[in-house]
Known about the structure:
- Belongs to the bacterial ring-hydroxylating dioxygenase alpha subunit family.
- Keywords: 2Fe-2S, Dioxygenase, Iron, Iron-sulfur, Metal-binding, NAD, Oxidoreductase.
- Residues 44-157 form the Rieske domain.
- InterPro entries: ARHD_Rieske_2Fe_2S (IPR015881), Rieske_2Fe-2S (IPR017941), Rieske_2Fe-2S_sf (IPR036922), Ring_hydroxy_dOase_asu_C_dom (IPR015879), Rng_hydr_dOase-A (IPR001663).
- This is Rieske domain-containing protein.
- With 319 residues, the chain is an alpha+beta fold.
- It has three domains: 2-40, no CATH class; 49-145, Rieske [2Fe-2S] iron-sulphur domain (Rieske Iron-sulfur Protein, 3-layer Sandwich); 169-316, Naphthalene 1,2-dioxygenase Alpha Subunit, Chain A, domain 1 (Alpha-Beta Complex).
- Helix content is 28%, strand content 21%.
- The chain is built from eleven helices and 14 strands.
- The strands form five sheets. It has a four-stranded antiparallel beta sheet, with no helix packed on it. It has a three-stranded antiparallel beta sheet with strand order 1-10-9, with no helix packed on it. It has a three-stranded antiparallel beta sheet with strand order 6-7-8, with no helix packed on it.
- β3 and β4 form a beta hairpin.
- The longest helix has 16 residues, at 2-17.
- It starts with a helix and ends with a strand.
Amino acid sequence: MEVFELVVHRQVFDDVRRGMIPAHIYNDAELFELEKERIFGRAWMLVAHESEVPQDGDYVVRRVLNDSFIIARDSMGEVRVMFNMCLHRGMQVCRAEIGNASNFRCPYHGWSYRNDGRLIGLPFHKEAYGGEDGFRKKGQTLLPAPNLASYNGLIFVSMDPDAEPLEDFLGEFKFYLDFYTKQSSHGLEVRGPQRWRIKANWKIGVENFSGDMYHTPQTHASVVEIGLFREPKAEKRKDGVTYWAHRGGGTTYKLPAGTFEERMRYIGYPDDMIKRMSEVWTPSNNNWSATTGSSSLPRHAFRTSASCTTGQGFKTATT
Length: 319
């Protein structure tokens, strides 16, 4: 039996090296549990942007795997990420997706918490628990995220308290985050998430959006017909911009000859934004976007999709 399994494993490895991926990885329940533990349970995952909670008391609710989190700016202006779970029986204390609140109240037994997570209200504390001697209310808080960090206003959480530092995890991909988040000295304003729920394994969506250009001429035929993709062989293009991941796929568009300003204008950026970008981008950012005409993402840029599972709608802040 062991010899047979070894032969099967070798065949699988050989197929993978040739680009043949076993179909069962998309519907194997045990593998999915392992992915949740080894990938999503250890990686840093984007949950929000600081601009989504601009005022004291603002909050949004986001999910990471099976857990719900409250991302709130407390009354002192500090951004906190807390499990959306009452300390008593685990009921969600916040049912809205977005809002502004000074406190959160559990609908089950009425325990209430400040927007910094502190337990401030416990009905019948003395009668039910004997007061502080029976149950100490002081110092009790909603559980904080196991690990919390931010980069350029992007808020990440990790379910692993011993996860590597966020900036080490991002590595060379920070260059591209800088490119997108520093298009203005005012930073970004996030308009909120757009969500689609589909009956599919998470890897299907990731593979599609991280660079499956093969489907474009068929699924998005109208886009091709209007000329968005002007050449089919992006790898041979000398005068264009290409976003390419070493682990598969990318997207590309053709740029005309000209200065940085002319090329940015061709892409569609307004003049005032071009001016701001030229002021805040580094020379390498400028060169990457409109001079060399091509670029390759670092090898580990798509090492996990956990950090991009929350779809966010970004716009550049103008005030």
